[in-house]
Amino acid sequence: MMPQALIVDDEADILELLSMTLGAMDIECVTAENVAQAKQALQQQSFDLCFTDMRLPDGNGIDLVTWIQQNNPDLPVAVITAHGNMDLAVQALKAGAFDFVSKPVKLRVLRELVGAALKLSPSKPVLHERRSRDRLLGETQVMRELRGKVTKLARSQAPVYISGESGTGKELVARLIHELGARKDKTFVPVNCGAIPAELVESEFFGHKKGAFTGAVADKQGLFQAAHGGTLFLDEVADLPLMMQVKLLRAIQEKTIRPVGSHEEINVDVRILSATHKDLTAGVKNGTFREDLFYRLNVIEIQVAALRDRQSDIPLLAEHILQKLAAKNQQKKPKLSAKALSALKQYPFPGNVRELENTLERALTWAEGDTIEAADLMLPVFNDHKATNVSKSVDIEDNAQLTAASGDLETHLELQEKAIIQQALEETRWNRTAAAKKLGISFRALRYKLKKLDID
User: Fold this and answer.
1) What global pTM score does this model have?
2) What is the rounded CA–CA span in Å between residue 455 and residue 439?
3) DSSP state of 399
4) Are the CB atoms for 118 and 267 separated by under 8 Å?
5) Over the stretch 148-195, which tens digit does the pLDDT of each residue have?
6) Is 445 buried (19+), middle (13-18) or exposed (0-12) by CB count in 10 A?
């Protein structure tokens, strides 16, 4: 059967344009001129896609989007907005719209939207939930809710802002939204906004033409072009320079970019996902982040919980991480002793899942035999008072300090390891077999440490 589309608009020319365009794509169209007719059509038959104008004689498109979300949540709905009316478009996306198109309707944008919407199927949410469970491990309530949100957001084109502390897995969430959505066959392009020098950020995002500036010896494709048809993930978006924030906002709203040194604009079809461990609301208040860009990126926000807020998931995460490390090192997966597991569950992990991974990787090199003991974990000591404070809900500033402290501790521990190993090597005249024996570790573990700590 041919795909079925419902078009809701009281303007005859819009109905005709959409019907002709969709008909040329082998899609059968049913039209309705108001909300009442649309609801009647939706109750009489099933559709694969719905377009609705924002202003209708007996209501508005957002009301219809909300009604469809409640009665037929698997149906992708796109709203048609007046040119430049981004506020209404954002409201529609928040209400659950799949995407939006602006008048006058551009046929290229319309075809891209329809193509993406038809890749979604009512039968996929169950599969998506299973796949998200395999990637976002954990059976706590916060993780179950996160998986549900990811599955739902994968069926939308709305910009998503992912908040959470460093090390919680924000990029993993972004990748999963991409992989479960209509853009999964296209590219996922992650970029750390804080890692790009300010003078190069525009060229990195939009590309440049040969000769545009000193050093531009050839045309270069930007990140937006690389992500065309797919997803652009802006990690640490709070670190973008203000001037670039203005140009990014325009690129998102107009769906066009202009490479540095070019006089022509290029159409781009990109879904934007963004994340940062910083407080963007505070950035807006102190003037370091534009309010209009904040509201454009933060159409829908999801938060990734800190590991200390889901400590009962630690055994499952540890098992998965050890399995992965064992496979990587081509060795048998070690076990965690009862005391080691207890120590992991009691430690607050200011560095979150990333710190858990680093801790287990370090323990794997120190452990003798196939069991990791508590001493092998080399966990920093937190007194009861501090641990109690960490386990409770703390503010953003405290979280940042804890994360920084975790990094300092990791560095301190590595320096200690390096000093101990170098001393053993010097005492054994750099005989690695003798040094490993003196340190009480295997030769393989010592070799791994020499490489990791860059000891020549």
Assistant:
1) 0.78
2) 16
3) H
4) no
5) 999 889 989 999 999 999 999 999 999 999 999 999 999 999 999 988
6) middle
